[in-house]
Amino acid sequence: MWANLPRILTLVVRGFVLTLAVLTAVVVIRTVTFPSYQTSPPECKTTDPDFIPADEERLARFTSAIQFQTVSYERGVGTPQELAKFVRFIQKSFPTVHSSPMVRRDVVGNYSLLYRVEGSDASLQPYMLASHLDVVPITEEANWEAPPFSGQLKDGYIYGRGTIDAKHSLMGSLEALEFLLSRRHQPKRTLYLAFGHDEETGGHFGAKVIGDVLTQRGEKIAFILDEGSPVGDGLAPGVSKLLALVSVAEKGFLQLRLEVNEEGGHASMPRSESAIGILSKAISKLEDNPHPNMFGTGPEARMMEYVATEMTLPYRILASNLWLFSPLVAWVYSRKPQTNAFARTTTALTRFNAGVKDNVISPEAVAVIDHRIHPMSSVEEVMEFDRKVINDPRVKLNVINNRPPSPTSPYGKDSPTYMMLQETIQQIYPDALVTPTFMVANTDTRHYLNLSSAIYRFNPYVMTPSDLPRFHGVNERISVQNYERVMNFYYHLIVNMDKPLELKRHGHEDEL
Ligand SMILES: CCCCCCCC/C=C\CCCCCCCC(=O)N[C@@H](CCSC)C(=O)O
Ligand SMILES: [Zn+2]
Ligand SMILES: [Zn+2]
C-alpha cells in the first residue's frame, strides 16, 4: 500500500490537472464562441426634421404637470381635487388630441384616463401605452435642492415628484401623440393610452377599472408598454455601454403585517420579554436570513447572456459560462441592493409601530414587511420561509396584499413586438445594448395580464447608480435631454407601429 502511494498521488494530481484543463478549454471555447444577441441599430431618425424638441413650450407644460400634487397615500386615499385639476390641465394642454375625431377619451374610475386613437386598418390588433397620474408623498422636504412640486429647471434638470415616476411617460406619450395628430397623421394601428390614477397604491380603482373596461369591450392587445426599468449607465456590473433594460416580467409581492400581542402594564415591573422585544427578534431574524439566492433561474440569466459578448473580459468569461460560474455571479450580484434585487426575493421592513407612553409597557407591536418575489418563487414559498425563520408562534403573520410574479412575455428574434421595441430604443440610443430583464418593482400591468401576452415595462431615459435613490426619494429629477428622449421614443414607437409586425419563422410570415 505505502509503496503504491506515490503512484496513487500522481494519478490523483493528473486527474485533477486533466479536469482543470478540460474545464478551462470549455470555458475558453464558450467565451470566444458565445453568440451575440445584439442587432445593429437601424438608421437613426432622431436627426429627422420631425424630431420633437424639448422647447420652452413643452418644458413649461411638463413643469406645470409636476406642480399638481396628485399624491396617493393609502389604498383608496389619494388627492381627488388635485387629480381632477390635473385631468382638466391635460385636456387643455393637448388640444389636438382632445378635439380629434380619431380620438375617444373615457374618464374611468373618476380620474383615470383611457384614450383610444382609431387606426385606419381595423384588421390590426391595437396596442397600449400605459403610465399613471399619481405620485408618492414627499420625504425629507428640507433636503430637496428645489421644492418637490415646483418642476423647477436647474442646471439642465427638471426637479420634482413625478419627473421619473411617471409623469415623464404620461406627458411624453401625449406630446408624441399631439405632435403626430397635428401633422394630420392617422396611425394604421389603433392605439390606447391608459393612465391610472392610483398606481402607487395598487391601481385598484384606476388600472383595475381600465382593465375591466377593455375586457368588457372584448379587446385583445398586441402589446402593452408601461413604466419600467431604465437605460442603465453603469448599472450592470461589467457593462460599460448603455444598457437598455426591457422588463419582460415583473416580480410578485407580498406585504405582511407582523403582530405580537402580550401583556402590557407598568414599566416598573416588566416581564422578561415584551411585545416589542419579541417582534424585534423576529424582524432581526428576517433581516439576518435573506431569502435564497435564485440568480440564474429566471429571466435575469438571459440578461447576462444577452450582454455577454459586450462585457469586459472577466465578466465576459463569467457570463458566457453561467453553467459553471452562476454561484459566483450570484454572489457578485448579492453585494449591492440594486443587483441583489435581481438575485432573490427581497425583504424590506417598511413600518414598525408600538407603544403609547414612555412608562407603559406596550401590549402590542406591529411591523410591515414588503417582499418582492423573485419570478421563480411564489407567495406560498415566501410565507413558508418567513414562518420557518421566525419560528415563534407568538408572532402572527397576516397578509395585507399579495400578487404572484407575472408571466414572462416573449422576447428575442421570435417576438416581433419585442424586436419593434428594440429597434425603437436603438433609434434613440444607437450605441445602447438592449436586453430582456425583469422588473424589480411593480406596475399597473398586473391589471392588464388578461389583455395581452406581450407586456413590457421600460422607461426610455438614462439612469446612473446615483439616480436610483431618487425613485420615491429625495431630489427626484429628469434631465431635459432625457425628457426629450422620452418624447421622441414614444413618437418613434407610434410611427414604427404602423409597420407590419411580422413573425418570420419556418419560412412563412404571420401578421398580428
Ligand atoms: C443588472 C442590472 C442592474 C440594474 C439595476 C437597476 C434597475 C432598476 C430598475 C428599476 C428601478 C425603477 C423602479 C421604478 C418603480 C416604479 C414603479 C413603482 O413605484 N411601483 C410601485 C407600485 C406600488 S403597488 C403597491 C412599487 O412599489 O413597486
Ligand atoms: Zn410609477
Ligand atoms: Zn412609484
TrEMBL record:
**What are the required cofactors?**
Zn(2+)
Active site per UniProt: D134, E199
UniProt keyword annotation of Transcription regulation present: no
- Which reaction is recorded as catalysed by this protein? N-(4Z,7Z,10Z,13Z,16Z,19Z-docosahexaenoyl)-L-phenylalanine + H2O = (4Z,7Z,10Z,13Z,16Z,19Z)-docosahexaenoate + L-phenylalanine; N-(9Z-octadecenoyl)-L-tryptophan + H2O = L-tryptophan + (9Z)-octadecenoate; N-octadecanoyl-L-phenylalanine + H2O = octadecanoate + L-phenylalanine; N-(9Z-octadecenoyl)-L-glutamine + H2O = L-glutamine + (9Z)-octadecenoate
Please name the GO terms of the biological process aspect recorded for this protein, alphabetically.
adaptive thermogenesis; amide biosynthetic process; amide catabolic process; amino acid metabolic process; lipid metabolic process; proteolysis
Q: Which residues bind Zn(2+) 2?
A: D165, E200, H472
By its UniProt entry, which SUPFAM superfamilies does this protein fall under? Bacterial exopeptidase dimerisation domain (SSF55031), Zn-dependent exopeptidases (SSF53187)
Q: Which CDD domains does this UniProt record tie to the protein?
A: M20_yscS (cd05674)
Pathway annotation from the record: Lipid metabolism; fatty acid metabolism; Amino-acid metabolism
| Location of the Peptidase M20 dimerisation domain | 248-388
The free-text cofactor remark is: Binds 2 Zn(2+) ions per subunit.
Task: Tell me the keywords, alphabetical order.
Answer: Hydrolase, Metal-binding, Protease, Zinc
Q: Name one GO cellular component term.
A: extracellular region
Binding annotation for Zn(2+) 1: H132, D165, E227
> Which Pfam family, any one, appears in the UniProt record?
M20_dimer
Q: What does this protein do?
A: Secreted enzyme that regulates the endogenous N-fatty acyl amino acid (NAAs) tissue and circulating levels by functioning as a bidirectional NAA synthase/hydrolase. It condenses free fatty acids and free amino acids to generate NAAs and bidirectionally catalyzes the reverse hydrolysis reaction. Some of these NAAs stimulate oxidative metabolism via mitochondrial uncoupling, increasing energy expenditure in a UPC1-independent manner. Thereby, this secreted protein may indirectly regulate whole body energy expenditure.
Q: Which protein family is named in the record? A: Belongs to the peptidase M20A family.
User: What is the name of this protein?
Assistant: PM20D1 protein
Q: Which gene encodes it?
A: PM20D1
